[in-house]
Specification:
4 strands, single chain, four-stranded antiparallel β-sheet, 2 domains
Length: about 180
Amino acid sequence: MVTDSKEVFYGLYDDEEDLLVAVQRAKNAHLDIMDVYTPFPVHGLDPILGLSESRLHIAGFVYGATGTLTAFLFMTWVFTRDWPIIFGGKPYWSVPAFIPITFELTVLFAAIGMVVSFYTVCGLAPGVENPILDDRITDDKFCIAFQTNGFSSSEMNNLKGFFKSTGASKVSTKVI
């Protein structure tokens, strides 16, 4: 029987500055960090972890452009082919009259598309259960987690020593 359980060894920190120092020391010691959890975004953490910039803004532009084209092309089709009525002395194809609806659909498509993309990429889609290492991570604690499946006792002692030397307030193991 194959199990997908992971043994996670983690340490909690009280301050984001301590966390940044600990993550830098872990990187310098070539420790393989599974993940870092924080209750709010920590400035300077992404470069230390080597994470690239999010491409969500590119997706937002594509969704917005799709909304713009949808609105503009639909109104062009309606007012020139499907229901060509001259009202208020305007021509059939009156671009200034299209601007408000085009703007609204641009914002709507971008907003909905970015929310769906963000939730999907972050694993927050409906029905997905994400394991929680410690309840205080979402409140006031900062966490560094290491996956320790198959670690020897000397490797575990090295991690315990790392957490002790970096000032972790709590060190624990959890199977997720």
